[in-house]
Amino acid sequence: MAEIIQEEKGKGGKKKPRKGDAHVDMTPMVDLMSLLITFFMLTAAFSKPKVMEIVLPEKIRKDEKVEPPKIAESRTLNIILGPDDKVFWYPGKADPAVTVLQETDFSATGIRQVLLDRNRALFKKIDDFEQKVLKGEIEIKQDSMQNAIKQLKKDDDTGPIVLIKAYKTSKYKNFVDIIDEMSIVGIARWTFTDISWIEENLVNAALGIAPVAQAPAK
Amino acid sequence: MPKIKLATKSPRIDMTPMVDLFTLLLTFFILTATFRPQEAAPVDTPFSVSETPMMDNNVMTVLITKGNKIFFNVDNGPDTILKFRPKILAEMGKRYNIEFTDDELRKFEKSGAGFGVSIQDMKAYLDARTADEKKVFEKGIPIDSADNQLALWILFARQVNPAVRTMIKGDAEVEFPVVKKVLDILQEKNVNRFNLITNLEKIQVTEAKTE
User: Fold this and answer.
1) Which residues of A touch B175 (CB under 8 A)?
2) What percent of chain A lies above the pLDDT cut of 90?
């Protein structure tokens, strides 16, 4: 529908061809383009999902005669994910008579503080390293920086060994959150293990439910 | 005194710059657009601070929806050339003595979306014409020990494409035991390295720093 502007009729009715350019009406073109842009904008995957890698230790099969690795009790920190975004933790080994669960949450002053207190040495090392890189004292490429941090974590032998366990009514979100905390605080050694019946009872008690879990029959 | 002549023409706006801009935008969006098939089930992934973007190919995804249904997907990517999807389905059919026609295999290859259908319903699911008809069969992939089809899907997916990486896309509100079961199945099949699909969350890490 290109329209050409008609010259007004001059005096004497004599047609004079107008000089200058003929206008092409671009409105339909703009209409179409806006439509297409809207379409592509809406279908475009702007926020690509992110992934978080976790590596779990290999399962020890029943028929294999392999002992699970032993870890120092003093360095062990157990975290149990509870219902309603609650987090329970206790250090060392579970003992129904002695162990008292500490209750906390996912806020910055919650479980993160607990982890930070125990992981201060390593956290400081990583933080110092990052600060130096930021200030330009150490020149290092992004890739090798990641590797250097990994190496720092690998060499760490004072930080906690975190065992994550999930109570039956905890949510998947909590699981992701706690792994997130591990990377925020820079915990070098953590893993996810099954909750034991003792711990289940401890959580039950903390929640005010009668302990029901029993020791599995041998 | 001559009269002031008012312009009788309607005022025009020069649209050329606008068209220029739109063309640029359009080109940008066309070039950046990636068409991915619609996800079989809506899943609200939890948030994390991880910044690794999701890989585009050689992935298999286990979806866990809010209703605790399990969906499975072997994503496209090099699939279109190497045709992993129909191979996996054919293997799966062989195990359950279900023969899939070429037409059905092609449909499975083309769809590219996740599915939550037991293998017994797969034939009917692929032959269904509308989305509503398909919905009827989407009861989730069985994962109980009597008929653990998810384990077989994982097994065959890894046999057909050894480079495949495992993604778990769970809804934030899923109860943990279901996730645990999926993790157990994966570990049974010797998959110890997973990628959890999350959304990026912006949080202040510095707050927690104590000196």
Assistant:
1) 168-172
2) 0
A22-26, A56-60, B78-82, range with the lowest pLDDT: B78-82
What distance in Å separates the CA atoms of residue A168 and residue A166, rounded to the nearest whole number? 6
Chosen from A48, A58, A60, A176 to mutate, greatest number of chain B CBs within 10 A: A176
Given a cut of 60, is residue B143 above it in pLDDT? yes
Among the listed ranges B76-80, B150-154, B189-193, which one has the minimum average pLDDT value? Answer: B76-80
Does A189 contact B at CB distance below 8 Å?
Answer: no
Using an 8 Å CB-CB cutoff, list chain A residues near B200: 47, 50
ipTM exceeding 0.85, yes/no:
no
Is the CATH code 3.30.420.270 the one for domain A73-119+159-207? yes
Domains of chain B, residue spans: 47-200
The pLDDT confidence band at residue B208, using thresholds 50, 70 and 90, is very low
The single-letter code of the amino acid at A73 is E
Residue spans per domain, chain A:
73-119+159-207
> Hey, is the C-beta of A32 within 8 angstroms of any chain B C-beta?
no
pLDDT, tens digit, for every residue of B151-167? Answer: 888 888 888 888 888 88
- What's the mean pLDDT in B78-103? 80
Residue B160 corresponds to which tokens in the numbers above? 């057909």
Contact: A50, B194; criterion CB under 8 Å: no
Distance from the Cα of A56 to chain B's closest Cα (Å) equals: 5
Strands A102-104 and B47-48, bridge-based pairing:
unpaired
Q: Do B174 and A59 touch (CB under 8 A)?
A: no
Instruction: Report d(CA A155, CA B156) in Å as an integer.
Output: 39
Cross-chain Cβ contact A53/B193 below 8 Å: yes
